[in-house]
Amino acid sequence: MPIVKYPRATEPLWHEWDWKAQKCGLRHTVYAVNGDQYTGEWLDNLKHGKGTQVWKRTGAIYSGDWKFGKRDGYGSYSIPDPVTKEYKKVYTGWWKNDQKCGYGATFYPGGERYEGEWSGGLRSGWGRMYYRDGSIYEGQWLADRPDGQGMLRLPNENRYEGGWKDGKKHGPGKFFYLDTGQLFEGIWAADVPKCGILIDFGRDEAPAPTQYPIPKV
């Protein structure tokens, strides 16, 4: 009795190639068409877990947590110095949906620094900002500007404590002139004091007190 051989059904080659190309779990460096490279964990062809991304165009590096292809969790972002080519940390903290979100620290050019809360990539919540001139603002932020209650300390130790809106002094507040030993307490509107009272405050300890004390009413 003759033996009939039936040809085995073969899968198209692209099925095998596609299966091998699926990225899931820990992988070595994977290069994108534009030259960007990623080393780390994957899930269903998306960066997911721990990993490091290097952008070819800017040379920037992100190392930290990923979720479904986006920076999400804790991680740090650094860029190379244009002169020395050494990497300088720009942001270290929490991310959500590829944006700064939660508590983190940002380092700006010129030595300025912000430590505090973020939302949607903007400073929002409580935070402390160190400015280039030596001033320090500590308080509430909204949409990248001081907004709410906060304190601004100037390089000469004078300080303002009170309300803020859109990055300007706004509402009830106190300005301590510690260099002259005076205190102004009043109402501000868009950085301008509208009304209030000025009294002596620590005049005896002030380094440069006014010539005459303010008489009490």
UniProtKB/TrEMBL annotation:
Transferase listed as a keyword: no
> What are its GO cellular component terms?
acrosomal vesicle
The record's keywords, sorted A to Z, are: Cytoplasmic vesicle, Repeat
Q: What Pfam families does its record include?
A: MORN
Query: Ligase: is it a keyword of this entry?
Result: no
Q: What is its main location?
A: cytoplasm
Q: Where in the cell is it found?
A: Cytoplasmic vesicle, Secretory vesicle, Acrosome
Q: What does this protein do?
A: Assembles a suppression complex (suppresome) by tethering SIRT1 and MDM2 to regulate composite modifications of p53/TP53. Confers both deacetylation-mediated functional inactivation, by SIRT1, and ubiquitination-dependent degradation, by MDM2, of p53/TP53, promoting a proliferative and cell survival behaviors. May play a role in the regulation of spermatogenesis.
The protein depicted here goes by the name: MORN repeat-containing protein 3
This chain's source organism reads Oceanites oceanicus
Output the lineage of the source organism.
Eukaryota, Metazoa, Chordata, Craniata, Vertebrata
Query: Gene name on record?
Result: Morn3
